[in-house]
Amino acid sequence: MKTIKTSILPTHPHHVKTRAPHELDKKAICIFAATGFFLGTDTYWKDEKVLPPGTINTIDEEGYWVDSKPWFEWHYSPRNISFATALSEFTTLFESICKEQAQDQAVLLPLSGGLDSRTQAVAYSKLDNPVTAYSYSFKNGFAESGIAKKMAEVCNFDFKEFTIEPGYLWSHLEELASLNKCYSEFTHPRQMAVLDDFKQMEGVFSLGHWGDVLFDRGAAVGTTENTILEELYKKVIKKGGLELANALWEQWELEGSFEAYLKQRMEAMLARIKIDNVSAKVRAFKSLFWAPRWTSVNLRVFEAAHPFQLPYYDDRMCAFICSIPEAYLADRKLQIAYIKQQSPALAKITWEAARPFNLYNYHHNRVPYNLPYRIVHKLQREIYGVLGKPYIQRNWELQFLGMENDKELQEHLFCENLDPFLPNTLLDSFYNGFKKKDAVNYSHPLSMLLTLAVWYKSRNHA
Questions:
Q1: How many percent of the chain have pLDDT more than 90?
Q2: 43 pLDDT exceeds 60?
Q3: Residue 163: beta bridge partners?
């Protein structure tokens, strides 16, 4: 017998064998198709599972998973402390984690217009480690790098700017599939477009994943214990995902209904979280099931270039969050206060989520104060369209729109017979939905079908 201990927020999946038939887990794949991630311990196969987070697991001599016991359980135990005390504790903890993770190495810091990487920028600006910050923008899209460059200048970091070009996916598709094992749809990790550039850089990545979940309200105002399930269900189902999952469920002649099955699974998972506070309970659900099976999957892309660290994934940070009153976490209060206190210059730079406002005046991001910006931004998008350069807002637009992309897409979907796993009638239906009905609604199903097609073909050729 041996034991495997998993982190609270695992960065790598631990795949183990179970004593079950070696068959496709089609119900699990339907959930993957609807949401973009596998739920709980699910994989493509019934006899293969991923060990749950925060557990100590027993594996027998033949490599089969025997049992699992939690060593950490998410809880909500708020201390009676002031906001100033919480801020002081966060400052000490976060800066200590960043320092420990960086050690004496050069740091590669992706910067965006948001708060997670900006918080990291504050911490690393206090250290002696050489920092190379970088950012990327979609070609013909919002110039996110403009905000990042200003932050890098304030912190005296070296800075690199990348442009994500249309159609980059196709030349990297096989490599991406080998990295994430087709456990995430392919249009999300835009880092693949600049992976070769990453390999020319030196240092360790410091990534800001999961900060936005830990340091914000877990549930929308008004969510109750009775409505948690329905609210989470709406969040996990991607646009067009339910239609695809139902189509696969019917195609594979599975018993019952997909919606009832998913809700039953989610309800059971929620019941295991012993937290009364609704917001904290939703955050715990996301951390248990979203983080390891969705957020962590494409960390492999960074690892293909250099080692990575994640300050928000640190076990101490998770324990800290459980002890902080929800009122202090809601609306990004702690991070905003930290940045304003430690680096007013960074706080004065535009916050992308509230543009054109910053951390001092973001409360004005509402009509009529933001109306001039919204009008100008709309005009910019329309001008791009008139010039034959559609304004790019989403990664799939770079991969699926245009003749060259369409040619590649059709080749990967239709050049090989995938029946009975993905029959042509099903592929045709969703492909035509994307081309002729509603590209936004069918972009997720199309991306999932591409992912499943590549996985199925690689499985058969292995």
A1: 83
A2: yes
A3: 137
Asked whether 258 and 247 are in contact (CB, 8 A), the reply is: no
Report the sign of the C-alpha dihedral through residues 405, 407, 410, 415, in that order. negative
Q: Which two tokens stand for residue 32?
A: 């993957």
- Name the nearest CA neighbour of 207 among 316, 339, 300: 300
β-sheet bridge partners, residue 15: 50
Task: Supply the pLDDT for residue 363.
Answer: 87
Which pLDDT score, from 0 to 100, does residue 458 have? 87
Does residue 420 carry a pLDDT above 60?
yes
**pTM (predicted TM-score):** 0.93
Residues 255-271 pLDDT 10s = 999 999 999 999 999 99
Report angle CA 35, 183, 405 to the nearest 5 degrees. 85
